[in-house]
Amino acid sequence: MNQKSVTSMQRVLTTLGHREPDRVPVFFLFTLHGAKEVGLPIKTYFSDPDNVVEGQMRLLAKYRHDCIYSFFYAPVEIAAFGGEVIFTDDGPPNSGEPVIKTTGDIKNLAVPDVKNTPCLEMVLTATQRLKERVKDAVPIIGVVMSPFSLPVMQMGFDRYFDLMLEKPDLFAHLMKVNQAFCVEWANAQLAAGATAICYFDPISSTTITTREMYLKTGFTIAGQTLAKINGPTATHMASGRCLPIIDDIAATGTAAVGVSCHEDMALIKSVCRGKLSVIGNLNGIEMCRWSSEDAENHVKEVIAKAGAGGGFILSDNHGEIPFQVPDDVLMAISEAVHTWGRYPLDWTAGK
Amino acid sequence: MTDKLVDAFTRALLDVDRLAAKQIVQNRGHDTSPVKFAEDVVLPALERIGAGWQAGTLALSQVYMAGRICEDLIDQILPPEDPDRKNQPKMAICILSDHHKLGKIMVCSLLRASGFDLADYGVMEVDDLVEQVQKDNIDILLISVLMLPSALKIKTVKQKLAHLGCDVKLIVGGAPFRFDDRLWKTVGADAMCRDASDAVSVIENMMKGMV
């Protein structure tokens, strides 16, 4: 394929079809850098969908990457459930005190009305306006937290583990509420113009739960939920490991998986080949102190391990680039993908 | 014999079998003090589980449940204020700037299950933390974080404590430190823990330097 004639959408669809496009697609999953780009504090930036549209468009042009990320921040879903969002000047907004404090709170938890919740409406408006700008040339990636992973923000990690392991009836009720919300939220984003939905599910990773527990919980929930989402999905482990459950993840009906920098990409790719596309796995935390040379070396290494045959999108391992990652490192990553990611990857022969 | 006991205790913890774990504690024999049992059996079992998590063969849910079970069991035979608790420096633990408590809970469980005691400050911001540490005359401060910006604030904690002349050792832990093994030095910490079970050996090493 001639690189100039290929749109990002064509490039991404080709790789998702497990074929080699003109070059390895690269997803910079930017949220906070948009604020930096338009010169606004993070809280102000996310207060108006037009800021996010402008930020995403500038980032697309600057770094020549292959997606729009319509994701604002994870606690937007917590805000929809009535929770608090805490903004900081130099990092992603955080969720405040858990919205679920007692078992009674779970029983009374209502499914938020997606179309009448201001914080969600802003994301939908941004998605619509981004779609008007990029049309079908660039995929727009919407985001949902999986029903199985959302409770970490709803009630805290420790009490969620206790619930999952010791109170199966209440756990089932919470999953029912979260599933209904997740499906409606994903489908609203698709209707607004998102091309695909990234289903963040770190609690299903083997870093957090055992495969045995996953098969009884996160796996079943993902299968049921993804089946009701009216578009393609990618499952992201947000830095968690997933090698032992790759076949299970594929069986949930997802098209791709976002993997941890703590896993061997060559091994992951060999297990995923033909079944799941792989997204990853640059270390976003380390990226804060990389030199341009480090960036190029890491890009070359991951392409050499996972690029052959398509089915691969280069990205960070967490699903969000930290605010502290300098622009010159991001530029070096982009340059390296444009230089070393061109198919065929002859330079990787023998590596 | 101890190895077999550690094997059995580890198995009980991984199976979340509280009864089996309790039985092993109760059958420890009259000549084994609670502190000795914690050192010889409980801590090695928790260290094995922590190492399994680091290696990717065990899950965080298993580490968490193991710590909780051990904390309950040890509290029964060695209450928090028991004079048999180890001679130790004044220690405190906190979460800096976010509401993710799991790491702190696991470290608390593990240290208490290993015979240590420490103050739990909960969620703190920089200035309040510095003030509290100075007021309590803390020797070792453990800080748990989930988010990178919270980790970076530790540098300010260190600077403010130094400015006040507080000789406090900082031990840090949490996700950002596991993804960048140089970050703990960048923020001015004295040590980092890759998982909760690291805390005991890190503190014991620090105590040797304090003598």
What does this structure look like?
The complex is a heterodimer of chains A (351) and B (211). With 351 residues, chain A is of the alpha/beta class. Chain A has helices spanning 8-16, 33-38, 42-45, 49-63, 76-80, 103-107, 118-134, 151-155, 157-166, 168-192, 211-216, 218-228, 246-251, 265-272, 292-306, 327-340; strands spanning 68-69, 85-86, 94-95, 140-145, 196-200, 233-236, 256-258, 277-282, 312-316. Helices cover 46% and strands 10% of the residues of chain A. The longest helix of chain A has 25 residues, at 168-192. Chain A is globular. The two termini of chain A are 24 Å apart. The model of chain A has no long low-confidence stretch (mean pLDDT 96). In chain B, α1 (2-14) runs antiparallel to α2, α1 (2-14) packs across α3 (34-55) and α6 (126-136) crosses α7. Chain B has helices at residues 2-14, 18-26, 34-55, 60-77, 102-113, 126-136, 148-163, 175-179, 183-186, 198-210; strands at 91-96, 119-124, 140-145, 169-174, 191-193. Chain B folds into 2 domains: 2-77, Methionine synthase domain (Methyltransferase, Methionine Synthase (B12-binding Domains), Chain A, domain 1, Orthogonal Bundle), CATH 1.10.1240.10; 91-210, Cobalamin-binding domain (Rossmann fold), CATH 3.40.50.280. Classes of the chains: A alpha/beta (351), B alpha/beta (211).
> Which percent bin holds the helix content of chain A?
40-55%
CATH topology of chain A: TIM Barrel
Q: How many helix segments of chain A?
A: 16
State the assembly state of the protein chains. Answer: heterodimer
Low-confidence stretches of chain B: none
CATH class division of the largest domain in chain B? Alpha Beta
Overall average pLDDT of chain B: 89
What value does the Rg of chain B take, in angstroms?
17 Å
Which word captures the global form of chain A? globular
What structural class do the secondary elements of chain B suggest? alpha/beta
Lateral strand order in the biggest sheet of chain B: 2-1-3-4-5
Query: How many beta-strand elements of chain B?
Result: 5
Most extensive protein-chain contact, per-chain counts: A-B, 37 and 29 residues
The helix-and-strand class of chain A reads: alpha/beta
Query: What's the N-to-C terminus distance of chain A?
Result: 24 Å
**Which CATH-level-2 architecture of chain A?**
Alpha-Beta Barrel
Give the count of structural domains of chain B.
2
- Classified in CATH, the superfamily of the largest domain in chain B is Cobalamin-binding domain
